[in-house]
From TrEMBL:
It comes from the Bacteria. InterPro entries: FN3_dom, FN3_sf, GH115_C, Ig-like_fold, PKD/Chitinase_dom, PKD_dom, PKD_dom_sf. It comes from Candidatus Competibacter phosphatis. Residues 108-191, 190-274 form the PKD domain. This is PKD domain-containing protein. SMART domains: PKD. Keywords: Signal.
Amino acid sequence: MNATHVAVIITLLFFTSIAQAGQVNLAWYPSTQSTLGGYKLSYGTASGNYSSSVDVGKQTTYTVVNLRDGAKYYFAVKAYDTTRTVESSFSNEVSTTIGVTSTPIAAPTASFSASPTSGTAPLMVTLIDTSTGSISSRAWTFSDGTTDTAKTVIKTFNTPGSYTATLKVTGPGGSDTTTQSISVTTSSLPVANFSASPTSGTAPLTVKFTDTSTGTVTAWSWDFGDGTPPSTQRNPSHSYATTGTYTVKLTTTNSAGSNAKTQKDYIKVSSNTGTGSSAGKFQQGSVAPNLVVMEAEHFTGNTAQGGYAWQATTSYGNYSGASALRALPEDNTRIDTNYAATSPRLDYQVNFVKTGTHYVWIRALGPSWSSDSLHVGLDGQEVASAARLSQLNPQGSWAWSKTTQGGTIATLNVTNPGIHIINVWMRESGTLLDKLVLTPNANYTPSDLGPDETISTTIGAATLPSPWIDMDIGNVGQAGSASYASGAFTVKGSGDDIWDNADAFHFVFQSMTGDGSIVARVASIDYTNSWAKAGVMIRESLDADARHAMAVVTAGNGVAFQRRTTPGGTSYHTAGAAVGAPYWVKLTRSGSTFTAYQSADGNTWAPVSSATISMATSVYVGLALTSHNNSALNASVLDNVSKRTN
């Protein structure tokens, strides 16, 4: 097909077998031109004067729909070339009169589902239109006077009573209506109650509280009796940092009101009874393999139960440290059930910086086949995956084992960082314990006397409200610390900087999963260097070279948004306002986007900058301080601290 050879369409064929009213099927003979680009079908109610046109491509059939019943229509086609610049003349014209259907259109049938149809106020009911037939509109009417037109409606009935939900659907063939009764009753007060485990132990004592309330409960408020902020979790864990006897109160709430349960003098926290170099907590290592190493004799609690006790001994030689411990008397006794309440227990307080599965190693000795196993637990709880640790050498020599009597590897699951208590119970009397090692590294194996005992001098969690903990990160010249009083954190830290490929600073932190934010006002910062900095940080790990983002106030260089996007990689800087403390900073995470904000009053916020950092889902969030002078401690104060998760 070209400008001088315009194809002429051969006679248009048509037929008027109508599938439904207002529809015509058409067909025409194809053009044989090699340059054919396609066809245009034109039609209208006046001969030769077509009001509608449609490009149908190269197909040679087409169905025209939505034609008016009783009207006469005229049809013709043109061909066009591949450039769409050359068109043929119209084909022959054909016409037909659209018949009027004699089959009436049926009215739709109204129906819907409602769930639930009864309950206590406020009752949220989901209503879904399941009507059938041709529907052009729907109308919901509720007997409380409200209406809606959506296909799916979520309706809340706030007041007790009997209600009717009505759905009317309308279509070309008419309308139909259906109803459903909904009953809303008055809520009754919940009956508050709870239990806790353990209810006694040495400080710091981590207690797991379990809600056992009856009735409908929509909100919980726990007063732990130690002056810390209340918890709104249903089943919280709480760490008691100091000795004392504590009264615990749980308040439960629903739409009918509140009910409280108070257990007076419920939690009893005694003083530390440990001996040796570990007078308090063991600090988990912040770098791989993140070991916790405990000499058996450096327990923080030793509780005799059931007529048995762990006692120091030096009779078997080749032990690590000052002595080993043995469960005595040895009388062939075995305790496999309810051992947390009936077997002698050792407690070791540990500040964990890693969460998840931890592998348990013991260096122990079994003088005989009937005295070669023990149980290990967490926070006073029996843990099946670390029960019946055995595979010891019953020939009078020490052995390392991480295997249970069932042949599985002994593990403990640490769900959140911070202070936890590792427990050891006697399983068979006469068993000796020399050392414990915990690590999240499945490939780590101790040998001989094992690694050196973990230090316990860098932790200040006892002075911080749960779940905050603190520690030095990287190579610092002086040990840092943190304390909390009257709504303010006082943080002390040295360190060269948080910059380049690795960091050295003091970190006050807790864990965060997913998206969230951290806000603080830097109330004051010591001038140990113009680049001394304090502020808020989100950090992927506690390694010195970890990915992180932070919004800080410096001692002499204003606000800054700084970050490291790859482990051990380059650090980046974006300057903010040229101001000093007191000043507010905020850091948010949304997926892999981290955004720093600054504010003079904590109400009006201005963004500093954003960066894309591919961090893990589980991260650490908190307050960071570096002296930028590794020989000097910088003491800074941060208040109005709040952490939020999305």
